Amino acid sequence: MNKKRSNFIKLLFLTLFTVSISADYKLGVDYRIVDNPLPVKKDGIVEVTETFWYGCGACYQFDPSVNSWASKQNDDIKFTKMPVTWGNIHQLHASLYYTIEALKLDPSTHAAVFVTIHKEGNFLQSPKAIQDFLKKFGIAPEVSSKYLNSFTVKQKVNKGIKHSRQLKISSVPMMIVDGKYIIESKGSYENILKVVDHVVELQKPNS
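-> structure tokens emitted (207 positions)
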């Protein structure tokens, strides 16, 4: 077999292999388009968002996987998290998330929230419980109370309420790509992230 023919066969095999992989994930089956997408910047960066709740056991299990995935992405991917805001307890936990962010605490603090709820049985159901939790990280109760009730945190929670309604978020964890595509929690966490990778590649030319 000559070299040109050999290279052609290799290229053909690679193309067919790539098509086969792409064909595994289908719109309407593995991911869907939302009816009313969120606006995103056209700056060459694909925005990927995880919706979650600290009180969700599946979110707790998914957290290490999605954090590991995020740490491996290049500058053309922007990863953020959006806590759900369905009811009072969700909004309280969302306030905790944004307070941790506003205080610029170490990212491991979020993992500590999951552990406190799911391993230690402390559901952090009140502002006082949250203040006691944040004391472990050197935050005085009056400081954490100030942040929990700040305009900035309340504004972010209200924005989360608006976006959750617009996207019709009904379960967690859920991944959103460029405010348009939704990947729900189906199958293994590894598979969810593979679908995200697939959708990200589809969206890159449009970002």
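Residues 139 and 196 are 36 Å apart (CA to CA).
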